[in-house]
Amino acid sequence: MSQFVAIRRELHKIPELGFQEVKTQRYLLDYLATLPQERLEVKTWRTGIFVKVHGIRPTKTIGYRADIDGLPIQEETGVPYRSEHEGYMHACGHDFHMSIALGVLTHFVHEPIRDDLLFIFQPAEEGPGGALPMLESEIMKQWWPDMIVALHIAPEYPVGTIATKQGLLFANTSELFIDLKGKGGHAAFPHLANDMVVAACSLVTQLQSVVARNVDPLDSAVITIGKITSGTVQNVIAERARLEGTIRTLSVESMQKVKERIEAIVRGVEIAYGCEATIDYGSMYHQVDNDKALTTEFIEFAEQLSNTTVVRCKEAMTGEDFGYMLAKIPGFMFWLGVDSPFGLHHAQLLPDERAIDFAISLVTAYLSWKGNN
């Protein structure tokens, strides 16, 4: 087992939610402290970390970002290094992302290149969103990179395959929370109450018409209601209901139109079911829009490597707050094949660990080339 596979397994044991990554930050800092410090500068930001690796004769700074938070999912993999935090799991590969970043960073500490490198260990990607406030931090302003790169594991691709494209890679996303308040009562007297279970069910059905009838068929959008909470017991009419979901679109304009239609439908539900409703859009993530020139350059570089297969993929409805960084800094993100039968955010996600050393080798080679040219 390689050093960074072992590190991934240790990180896998301690998943933590956004801005609660205390153990994770401590683990990363302890590892960084074992490295030669001559070229290193380490600064913490909330539960995140900035690490600058000074080059020999820098002409620019290249950024590399890895997210560090976990998800509120009960792990079902059964592996001996499974999560030690009940109800939480690294089910989106951020343990992979961190171990790969540490591997790349370690290489350049021992074998510096011409240019400076900035490694960003970012908290709260899954929510409430760490990229935008990190981008606005004083440390980031001081160490602002000239370009930036990130990767994300992809269960559907085999190890040794990467996938990316010029322009839009990931969608605009927004959380969606709708609270309904009516009038509770006895199940035997529905005429004296305003039932929010019925209102919520009607609302979910109506929301499905937004994409079908209000979005250009040549565009794309998705509204998903993933959770409904209502009621207390079987013989009491529910006074309240809460819907939780997400909105995903391929353009900022479509996101605005979808939200306008949701608000109109909710106003109609208020009238039809005699209730009060509130909408909260929670965290909103900017689309991941890859810089055309840098992405093309990376694809051409990777295609020359004998051990790498490059797929020019389509855009995905996945959300990623790395999009905020790409909105301000030229760069790109790519998918890393990890060949798992279970997908992202699944309790049995089990990525192939051979992808870790492959990714370290690939990213190191690219940054070495880019940072010396």
From TrEMBL:
Reactions it catalyzes: N-acetyl-(2S,6S)-2,6-diaminopimelate + H2O = (2S,6S)-2,6-diaminopimelate + acetate
Keywords assigned by UniProt, alphabetized: Amino-acid biosynthesis, Diaminopimelate biosynthesis, Hydrolase, Lysine biosynthesis, Manganese, Metal-binding
One term of GO molecular function: N-acetyldiaminopimelate deacetylase activity
Cofactor(s) this protein requires: Mn(2+)
One BP term from GO: diaminopimelate biosynthetic process
Pfam family, one: M20_dimer
Residues reported to bind Mn(2+): 92, 94, 126, 152, 345
Pathway: Amino-acid biosynthesis; L-lysine biosynthesis via DAP pathway; LL-2,6-diaminopimelate from (S)-tetrahydrodipicolinate (acetylase route): step 3/3
Active site: 67, 126 (proton acceptor)
Name the record gives this protein: N-acetyldiaminopimelate deacetylase
Organism per entry: Anoxybacteroides voinovskiense
